[in-house]
Structure formats: C-alpha cells, structure tokens
C-alpha cells in the first residue's frame, strides 16, 4: 500500500512523476544528463552504476528498471546487470568499472566513506577525474531516487516484461518525455 494516493496503473517513480509533474521534469532532466549525456563512460556503464546502487539500497523498482535498461544497451545480456547487482567483482566488466563501482558503493554507505584510497584505486584502473566525479554524482542521485521511490512505498513493476518494455522506450527516447 502506497503512503499517499497514487494512480494504481503506474509503477515506481512514474507514479510519483504523475503525482508531482513539476518535480518530475528536473528529476528526469538530471537522469538524462547523468545517464545519457556526453561522457567517456558508456551509457551501459552508467546504467550499471545506477543498478548497483539501487541493489545496495534494496530498491526493487530502480534495480529492475536500470538493470533492464543496461540489458537493452548490452544487446540483451541480462547476466551482466544481475552479476553487478550481486557480485560485481566477478562480473564480466572492466577493471575500471569495478573500481568505479567500489566508489559508488562507498557513496551509498556515506559520502565520507569515499576515501582517497578508493579514488586512487579507480584512477589506477584508468578512471579519469570526470569519471570519478560522474560516478559519485550518479551514486548520490540514485540514493535520492531510491529513497523517493521506496520512501513513499510505490508499487514496483509486475513482471520482467514490464521492465523490458519501459527500458526499450527509455533507450530509444530518453528520460525526458
């Protein structure tokens, strides 16, 4: 049961965007910049960071949503997002992305948990200062998105197919509608 009255036909953050459209636009624009804007990190990598942080925060809707988007961007390979969510160190991803996920995990615990050691490890793995910056911002933003979705007890998607359909739309059209 949601904590506030939301449309029962809408799921997760979409129901909150419908409830407060004036806050939806800047939140969607932020997601667009972070996950689809110009970057040396691939879109799939950024979606995997969002998936990982959402998994750490136990936000089912966001983990499944961004995992489905990452899957679509990875030509249907659902194993990578699944492994990133549960055991990223053994996932078939680059060492740089593993190091950036360590940064993201530190952000999820606390901004102060991002130590110079974890940043140095990311740099040694090939991450640029901009990539570290963007990883911290994606992780921080997804802590907010996750808490927004779960803090109002939104209803998650019903099926993997529902997430795949939404992912297909976002991959094609973006976050700003």
Counting DSSP H or I runs of 4 or more residues, the number of helices is 9
Strand content: under 5%
What's the story with the biggest beta sheet? none
Helix content: 55-70%
Number of strands: 0
Radius of gyration: 16 Å
Name the helix and strand elements from N-terminus to C-terminus, one letter apiece. HHHHHHHHH
Oligomerization status of the protein chains: single chain
| pLDDT < 50 stretches | none
Name the CATH homologous superfamily. AhpD-like
Structural class: mainly alpha
CATH fold name: AhpD-like
Shape: globular
**Residue-averaged pLDDT:** 97
CATH architecture: Up-down Bundle
Question: Descriptors for this entry?
Answer:
177 residues, AhpD-like, mainly alpha
Q: Brief description of this entry?
A:
The protein contains 9 helices and no strands.
Structure description:
This protein is mostly helical and 177 residues long. The protein has a single domain, classed as AhpD-like (Up-down Bundle). Helices cover 69% and strands 0% of the residues. It has nine helices and no strands.
Compile the SSE list and pairings.
Elements: H1 12-19, H2 21-36, H3 43-56, H4 60-73, H5 79-87, H6 95-109, H7 116-124, H8 129-151, H9 160-173
């Amino acid at each position: 049961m949601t904590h506030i009255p939301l449309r029962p036909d809408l799921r997760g953050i979409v129901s909150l965007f419908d409830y407060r459209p004036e806050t939806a636009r800047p939140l969607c624009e932020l997601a667009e910049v972070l996950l689809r804007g110009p970057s040396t990190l691939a879109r799939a990598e950024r979606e995997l960071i969002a998936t990982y942080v959402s998994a750490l925060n136990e936000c089912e809707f966001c983990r499944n949503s961004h995992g489905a988007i990452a899957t679509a961007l990875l030509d249907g390979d659902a194993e990578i997002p699944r492994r990133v969510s549960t055991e990223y160190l053994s996932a078939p991803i680059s060492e740089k992305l593993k190091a950036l996920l360590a940064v993201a995990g530190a952000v999820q615990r606390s901004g102060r948990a991002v130590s110079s050691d974890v940043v140095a490890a990311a740099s040694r793995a090939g991450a640029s200062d901009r990539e570290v910056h963007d990883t911290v911002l994606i992780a921080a933003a997804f802590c907010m998105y996750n808490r927004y979705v779960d803090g109002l007890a939104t209803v998650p998607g019903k099926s993997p197919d529902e997430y795949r359909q939404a992912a297909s739309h976002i991959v094609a059209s973006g976050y700003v509608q």
